[in-house]
Amino acid sequence: xxxxxxxxxxxxxxxxxxxxxxxxxxxxxxxxxxxxxxxxxxxxxxxxxxxxxxxxxxxxxxxxxxxxxxxxxxxxxxxxxxxxxxxxxxxxxxxxxxxxxxxxxxxxxxxxxxxxxxxxxxxxxxxxxxxxxxxxxxxxxxxxxxxxxxxxxxxxxxxxxxxxxxxxxxxxxxxxxxxxxxxxxxxxxxxxxxxxxxxxxxxxxxxxxxxxxxxxxxxxxxxxxxxxxxxxxxxxxxxxxxxxxxxxxx
Length: 250
Ligand code: ADP
Ligand code: MG
Hints:
The protein is α/β, with parallel strands linked by helices. 38% of the residues lie in helices and 27% in strands. The relative contact order is 0.17. Bound molecules: adenosine-5'-diphosphate and magnesium ion. The site of adenosine-5'-diphosphate has 9 residues, from helix 1.
């Protein structure tokens, strides 16, 4: 579902991704860990082409994001095609980023109505079901300011699911939450994993990564320095930097 080969990204002459290589098979969950500033968020943003890459290759479901093949050459595609590619990838951010002036239901309904142009009744029916699936059936008419952080993040997950994505990306989905609200959000993500959704999850929750991650990748200075089964990377890492990082996070 995701294939990254020597992915490079530079900001103002500084190398932020220095040859990232990884892959995620359909139905699998990859958890990404690593120190602040190591390029984890940048990598997620490259996967859905919120950031164009400066080198290497990034394929989602076999398609190069932001490009299309004609013959054996790659051509950059226009905004409309990128937006179609991106609509197949759901993204959930640390700070929810819900639309403050819209209810939960409107937040979840917006993208299917705009991008897919589907009729209001069907979209809202779907949105109600999605809100129910994240435990918020009774909050459809609430505005973000009337919801707890955990509830807002569950709306954000429902919103990302509304386009029926084939891939979900999570960037530290629980790090802005009070500790007592972390569990309800992790529970929703766990159910998504159980349903077979392919996911890439940047997280500081090591226990969660161990339970949910088929594999764990350790980022350091713009590269993946170690990747393997969650149990192995978190339990007996081969790299000294991974070991030191895990000791600091314990
Ligand atoms: P992480 O998510 O692992 O904490 P990031 O991907 O956010 O790391 O950032 C990696 C590096 O890239 C950091 O040094 C950060 O300052 C830099 N960076 C991230 N986004 C931008 C940007 N839009 N412009 C310039 N530098 C950026
Ligand atoms: Mg980050």
